[in-house]
Amino acid sequence: MDTLLRLLSDGRFHSGEELGAALGVSRSAVWKYLRSFEGEYDIELFKVPGRGYRLAEPLSLLSYEDCSVVLARLRWELCLRETVDSTNAEALRLLRSDVVAPFVVLAERQTNGRGRRGRVWASPPAQNLYYSLALKIVNGSGGLSGLSLVVGLAVLRALRRAGVTGAGLKWPNDLYVGGKKIAGILLELTGDPADVCHVIIGIGINVNMISGGLDIGQPWTSVRAQTGVLADRSELANFVSESLHHYLAMHAREGFSSLRGEWEANNIWQGKRCTLSSGTQQVKGLMVGIDEQGALRLLVDGLGEQRFSGGELSLRLDHDS
Ligand code: ATP
Ligand code: BTN
C-alpha cells in the first residue's frame, strides 16, 4: 500500500502494468488495491484507459532518509509510522517500552489526534505534520516553565523558513496566520515531576491541507494555502527539528526570560482586549504580555494587572478589539 502511494505521489500517470510489476501483483489486483486506498486515504484518483492511473494532486510523503539525516546530526532518533492513533500516545508507549529519549515520532496520519483538554486534532493522511519529540528531564519539571511558549517560537521560525509570512503566536501555544489557526502544540509530562520525568512535545502543523470535508470548528489555514505551493513535508519536519534544537538549547542555557521579548514581539494579541476563560469563569482585560515564566499578564478591568498560568486556560479576542 505504501509502495503504491509512493509510486503515485508524483501526480503523473503510471500504467497498471508498471504498478503491478513494482508490487509483484496482477493488473486487476492493482485496481482492487487502488479502489480500497481511495476510500482509506480520501484521495482522488484518475483512471484513463491507455495511460493508467494518476492522483488528482501530487502528494508530499514523509521520507525516512531525509528526516533521519537531519535528526542524526541532532542526535535524536526517528520513529516514522504510517498510521498511529496519536504521535504523542505512540511516544508515550515507546517510553514505557524503554526506548531511550530523545526521539521523534512522525506519522503520515493520526486516527485519534488530540488537542488540549481532550479536543480532537484533525489529522488527515499524507497532508500535514504530526510530530512528537520525547525528551528526558533530569532535574524535575521546574525547569520547564515557558516550554510550550518556546516551542511556539520554534514552530514559528520553521514556518517562516517554509515561506509563510504573517504568522504569529497566541498564548499559550497556538500559531495563527490572518486570524486562522495553522498549528497547535500539546505538551504531555510522564514520570515523577519532582525527579526524573519525560516531556512529550506534540506539534501539529497544517501543511498541504487546503479543503475537504473536515469539521474543524474554527477557521484554519495551512502552509500551502499561504504560499500557494505544495510543501515538502520532510523538509518542514527538518526545519521544525533544527529550530526546536536551537530554542530548546537556549531555554536550557538561559531560561525562558531570555526569550520573553521575542515571544511578545510575535504575540498576535499584544495590547488587545481579550477574554480569558477557565471552565465557566471569565475575566476580561487588556493583554499586557507575559512574565519571565511565560504566565499571561492581563490588565483586568477595575483590578489592575494579574497573572495567569495553567493548562485549563483559554484566551479569546474581544470583538471590539
Ligand atoms: P484554546 O486552547 O485557547 O481554547 P483552541 O480553541 O484552538 O484554543 P485547542 O484545544 O488549543 O483549542 O485546539 C483544539 C481545537 O483546534 C479544536 O477544538 C478545533 O477547533 C481546532 N482544530 C482541530 N484540528 C485542527 C487543525 N488541523 N487545524 C486547525 N485547527 C484545528
Ligand atoms: C492544540 O492546538 O490543541 C494542540 C494540537 C496538537 C496536535 C499535535 S499533532 C502531533 C501530536 N499528537 C497529537 O495527538 N497531538 C499533537
From TrEMBL:
Example of a GO cellular component annotation carried by this entry: cytoplasm
Enzyme class: ligase
Name the UniProt record assigns to this protein: Bifunctional ligase/repressor BirA
Pfam families xrefs: BPL_C (PF02237), BPL_LplA_LipB (PF03099), HTH_11 (PF08279)
Residue intervals of the BPL/LPL catalytic domain: 63-252
Annotated DNA-binding residue span(s): 16-35
Claim: Flavoprotein is one of the keywords in the record: no
CDD domains: BPL
The species this protein was found in: Stutzerimonas stutzeri (Pseudomonas stutzeri)
Keywords: ATP-binding, Biotin, DNA-binding, Ligase, Nucleotide-binding, Repressor, Transcription, Transcription regulation
GO MF annotations in UniProt: ATP binding; biotin--[biotin carboxyl-carrier protein] ligase activity; DNA binding
Catalytic activity: biotin + L-lysyl-[protein] + ATP = N(6)-biotinyl-L-lysyl-[protein] + AMP + diphosphate + H(+)
Biological role stated in the UniProt entry: Acts both as a biotin--[acetyl-CoA-carboxylase] ligase and a biotin-operon repressor. In the presence of ATP, BirA activates biotin to form the BirA-biotinyl-5'-adenylate (BirA-bio-5'-AMP or holoBirA) complex. HoloBirA can either transfer the biotinyl moiety to the biotin carboxyl carrier protein (BCCP) subunit of acetyl-CoA carboxylase, or bind to the biotin operator site and inhibit transcription of the operon.
Gene Ontology terms: biological process: regulation of DNA-templated transcription
EC number: 6.3.4.15
Residues annotated to bind biotin: 86-88, 110, 114-116, 181
Entries under Gene3D superfamilies matching the protein: 2.30.30.100, Bira Bifunctional Protein, Domain 2, Winged helix-like DNA-binding domain superfamily/Winged helix DNA-binding domain
Entry similarity comment: Belongs to the biotin--protein ligase family.
